[in-house]
Amino acid sequence: MNDITNNTASEASSPLLTVSGPRATLRLNRPREHNRLDPTDLNILRDHVATVESDPSLRVFVLTGTGEKSFCSGYTLGALTEMKTESSKDDSTLEQVIDRIEALRIPTICALNGSVYGGGTDLALACDFRIGVTGSRMVVPAAKIGLHYYPTGMRRFVERIGVAAAKRVFLIGEAIPCEEMLRVGYLDELVAPAELVARTDALAATLCGNAPVINAMKGHLNRLASGEFDYEAILRDYEASVASPDLKEGLAALKEKRAPKFKDF
Fold this sequence. Notes:
This protein has 265 residues and is of the alpha/beta class. The protein has two domains: 13-208, 2-enoyl-CoA Hydratase, Chain A, domain 1; 211-256, no CATH class. Helices cover 42% and strands 17% of the residues. It has helices at residues 41-54, 94-102, 119-125, 142-145, 151-161, 163-172, 178-183, 196-209, 213-225, 231-242, 245-256; strands spanning 13-20, 23-29, 60-65, 70-72, 108-111, 115-117, 129-133, 137-139, 176-177, 189-191. It has a six-stranded mixed sheet, with helices on both faces. It has a four-stranded mixed sheet with strand order 4-6-8-9. A hairpin with a 2-residue loop joins strand 1 (13-20) and strand 2 (23-29). It starts with 12 loop residues before the first strand and ends in a 9-residue tail after the last helix.
């Protein structure tokens, strides 16, 4: 089942989560408002992410939006002055929700079905892979409206696209076209809009077919990007993989020229 750029929704709604086999898809669903995030969406997003995290049968998570114009326009501007900056047991912050997406144990793909703005840019950055469409752009207007960006969002930008590009994004606030988004590493791939679904499906299928060791490697890579190098933890996972049935199966499948059947998910 495929939920990317789904235009069949009868009306706008909070983000929608669907599960099909080993794949979960979370779709922002306010196309007329450029898939903005309202305050009430944050707890819903948090709960959807928790559902994905707790399901051991899931192997990949796809984040996308409804429509063909925008992936996400960020947090509702009218509510910015009342936006919570500290989470509580009852309410999540935007930063907390995005951090949880970044920390998901399984690989994540953001299929940006259009342009992206404000906090939506960080929402996409929290994913492991980002596929954009030609004709799109990104804008972070924080400096133009007097908003200082939150801590982990700034960290993600510097880690993923470097400090020079991050300064252009935050300090100038200029619109950055999709070709430049690809060049600086904000996007991993750039495809024609008509190709977004097929390319996302193909990448999701590849990730689903790989051994479950990718989940551990994802966690270590994220920590390494943040400057945390736990040699012993990485060594333990490496040694466990050498002795695992999955490695034996992977080598046998390679020799026999067939798809491997990993079992340790």
